[in-house]
Amino acid sequence: MRTDTETLQRMQLLRENLLSVEKKIDDEVKKNFRKRNYRLLKFLHKERDVWNMAILQLKWFLHELPVDQDPVA
Amino acid sequence: MKRQRKKISIISWGGLGDVLLSTPAIAALRTKYPQHWIVVFCRGRSHAEIYWNNPDIDELRPVSFWILLRLYAIRAMGIGQVYIPEYGHIFPSLYYRKCASEIIGEMMNVKPDSKKLRMYLTEEEDKEARKALAVFRNPVILHITSLTSPNNEWFPEKWESLIAKLPDYTFIQVGVGHERKIKGAIHMLGKTSFRQACALIKHARAFVGVGSSFSHASAAFDVPGVVLFGAASPVIWGHDRNINLYKAVHCAPCVDLIYDSECPYSKQCMNKITVDEVKAALLRQLG
Q: Considering only residues 236 to 275 of chain B, which have any Cβ-Cβ distance to chain A shorter than 8 Å?
């Protein structure tokens, strides 16, 4: 079983990934709508969901997730 | 003779690799309909070059806008057998777990007996390739570029490092003229036609490169190959005889999602493939 510190470290890594994806989405959305790469935007949208979900699961593991935010319950 | 036979029309589709991948399905069509007249309408000379001398095909014809319109209409009305193996439109790496030649077979309502790709070189082409390679010690054909997506490409410094680690082999780089030259390799970029490059692959000791038309050519000639996959899936585009190196990171395969857009993760899938891994795989293939 992982310790809480290890889980928190992993959560930090996931947050960094999430931030990097969100920054890329922002950069793409700042472009004129005709010049946006919509394939990339859809992919980044999916990736944002992946990291968000992973963070929520770790929060649940650490009992940090309020019941009304639990996506599985 | 031609008039009396029922006609099957196929419109070539995709890149050169996709055209090569359609050959097992065409062979299966020939087996299923031995009496039919099989015509392949080629979008460009490069497509036709792949089908040259193919005994499963009765006629190769160029395609024009009006011919396309007519064939699409025939297909839509269901009044003739017209096949367009445009399997890329159905996102194979997302929804399929079988190789591209089988997917194309499914689109043509046939089940290929074998996944063996077919390309028929002439004796003259074989002779020229043997002559060209005779001066090199242990020739290995190298191809580093993917026209589908740059996310499939490995890093030039890693290729250079691989070549430096295998001094007993001569790496011959094939491809088109504007591709990046790799230090330490013999450059034949832009100096050969696709068929000539395929003939070189046929007579080389091995092939190493990224998933591309040339990796399919190595499978067509049963030349041992090492193929690096990143954005594309080896389940769809890999071949059993090759060693397919692939790191299943969480976002791979992404080619059907982002196509040729820049990878947001700096190609971690390709970055995780190490030089030593490729070297070991290549030495294993070289026996």
A: 250-251, 254, 257-259, 261-262, 264
Cα-based distances in Å from A2 to A22, A60, A62? 28, 14, 11
Please report the beta strands in chain B, taking only residues with DSSP state E, as ranges in sequence order. Answer: 7-11, 37-42, 59-62, 81-83, 139-143, 170-173, 186-187, 206-210, 225-229, 243-246
Rounded CA gap, A56 and A15, in Å? Answer: 11
What is the pLDDT, as a whole number, of residue B253?
A: 95
User: Strand, helix or coil at B259?
Assistant: coil
- B176 in A contact zone (CB under 8 Å): no
Separation CA B210–CA B159 (nearest Å): 11
pTM of the model: 0.91
Q: Is the pLDDT of residue A13 over 60?
A: yes
- Tell me whether residue B200 is exposed, middle or buried, using C-beta atoms within 10 angstroms of its C-beta: 0 to 12, 13 to 18, 19 or more: buried
Q: What is the DSSP letter of B150?
A: G
Q: Closest Cα of chain A to B119: distance in Å?
A: 34
Instruction: For residues B104 and B270, give the distance between their C-alpha atoms in angstroms, rounded to a whole number.
Output: 27
Per the CB < 8 Å rule, is A47 touching B264? yes
DSSP label of B88: G
Task: Identify whether the C-beta of residue B239 lies closer than 8 Å to the C-beta of residue B215.
Answer: yes
Using CA of residue B248, residue B252, residue B256, residue B260, what is the dihedral sign?
negative
Residue B38, burial from CB neighbour count under 10 angstroms (0-12, 13-18, 19+): buried
Is A40 in contact with B254 (Cβ distance < 8 A)?
no
By the CB < 8 Å criterion, does A35 face chain B? no
- Report the complex ipTM: 0.81
β-strands B139-143, B170-173: how paired?
parallel
List, for residues B45-84, the tens digit of each pLDDT value: 999 999 999 999 999 999 999 999 999 999 999 999 999 9
